[in-house]
Design brief:
Layout (H helix, E strand, L loop, with lengths): L16 H26 L3 H25 L5 H28 L7 H8 L2 H14 L2 E3 L2 E3 L1 H28 L2 E2 L4 E2 L1 E4 L9 H12 L4 H4 L12 E8 L5 E13 L5 E15 H11 L19
Antiparallel strand pairs: 1-2, 3-4, 5-6, 6-7, 7-8
Helix pairs in contact: 1-2, 1-3, 2-3, 2-6, 3-4, 3-6
Length: 305
Amino acid sequence: MNSSAYYQPSGKVGSMAWVYALLMAFLVMPVVAYLYAHGIRYNPIVYVSFLLTGGFGFLCGLATTWVIGAGKVRNPMVGMGIAIFIAVVAWYFHWAVWLALILGKESFADLTITFNLAANPAGVFKIMALVNEEGAWSIRGAQVSGVMLGLVWLIEFGVIVGLSVMMSSSKAKSPYDEATNQWTEEDELNYAFQFIPNSEYMPLKTDMENGNYDGFYRLKQIQPNGYEGYSMLKVNRSEGSDLCYVTLVKRVPTVDDDGKATNEDSNIFEYMKMDVQVLERFLQVSGEPLPEDDMPPQESPDDLA
């Protein structure tokens, strides 16, 4: 693969990235952590707590994605570091709130106790160790403590940090136009093209990497019938730029285990650099855009069932 033919993150980080990260970690996420801690403290159904944990991790991911976007982080490793930082701070603060609920006598965590705990990490981890010995909740009458409780906490930590990292990683890797100093916007063009067999997509990909677009120009639009595969084109471009980044997608209608029709997408290539004039010529020679009503449905006809 000719890596120079594809978008590569510049590795640059915007000057405000860490400011946004600090504000998000210490001003916004503590509020979310406060709510999350109360949710898992008073929720009587243990299994619902796992859903709450997933939701908390999801919000950490959204927060990190925003920071990476607003902070113009084009370095995936720095993006990962920011994601871990925000998630760990949020996770730690939820522990301070939860312990404040345990130690206090009020229905809501006392903010003075919460912030005193948050400012004393050694104290937090010491109380966590005591809770681990005694147990904090039970399943079917059996108290969960020791190694088992520690494993649950470890899974919780992994879910929160993992979701934060996974959700935000794609943003740091998505195309950023250094010439216009802005993120590109993705547009899934309202076009469907003929299906590209496995035996043909590698030569097409190689030719395009080397600047030979003859095979690309020969791709023709089709009228999708809802049960045969076809190709789709996604374009990332920023306003005023002469360069765009093209992703060619192979879409195959399938039926899931429940008998419902769905589409299975796989990238033939992703974020290939392309001059806008090349793209415009391709769209010209391939035919007119398909009307919206002619696009393949997400729900397939009965013959797929």
